[in-house]
Amino acid sequence: MAKQDVKRVLHEFFHNLDFKRYERDTFRAMVTDDFHIYEAGKHMSRSEFFDFIESTHSDASISNDWLLSDFRIATDRHSAHISYKNVGTFVSKTAEGKEAVLNIHWLENAYFVKEGGRLKIQFLHSEELKRETGEN
User: Fold this and answer.
1) How far apart (Å, rounded) are the C-alpha atoms in residues 12 and 133?
2) Exposure check for the chain: N or C terminus, fewer CB within 10 A?
3) CATH domain 3-135 topology
4) For residue 92, which of 66, 67, 129, 57 has the smallest C-alpha distance?
């Protein structure tokens, strides 16, 4: 299994978290049926994670973006593990009509398996390190 394939699937995962692109069916193709995640201090199944993501999207959302870096990847023929840093930037409109910016820094890791000839994420752990807020 190639390390660039692991990074590609991870980037696809975050690309599809964008509230303008998000679709459950797209995610079903990227994660295993038994996918689980530790996010926001909670352990979630695949369907609970989908519900969580959908609950974070609102009319006030303007944009979201993720910067992934410092990859450490280990692979074998049927699986892979990756750890990385993630900085998420979320811009939304306040009640006063201003733009509010939230930057969240995480340390994350994920486990991938080959399923049906495709590399899929089976587990993801996200540990929040820091939050920064501001206005534009």
Assistant:
1) 26
2) C
3) Nuclear Transport Factor 2; Chain: A, (3.10.450)
4) 57
Pairing of strands 31-39, 79-93: unpaired
pLDDT at 35 over 90: yes
Domain boundaries, the chain: 3-135
| pLDDT for the residue numbered 106 | 96
Nearest-CA neighbor of 58 among 20, 100, 96, 25? Answer: 20
Token pair 């590399």 is at which residue?
119
- Give the mean pLDDT of the chain: 90
Asked if pLDDT for residue 18 goes beyond 80, the answer is no
How is the beta sheet containing 31-39 ordered, strand by strand? 42-45, 31-39, 118-135, 99-115, 79-93, 61-75
Spatial neighbors of 132 by CB under 8 A, at least 6 apart, are 102, 103, 104, 105
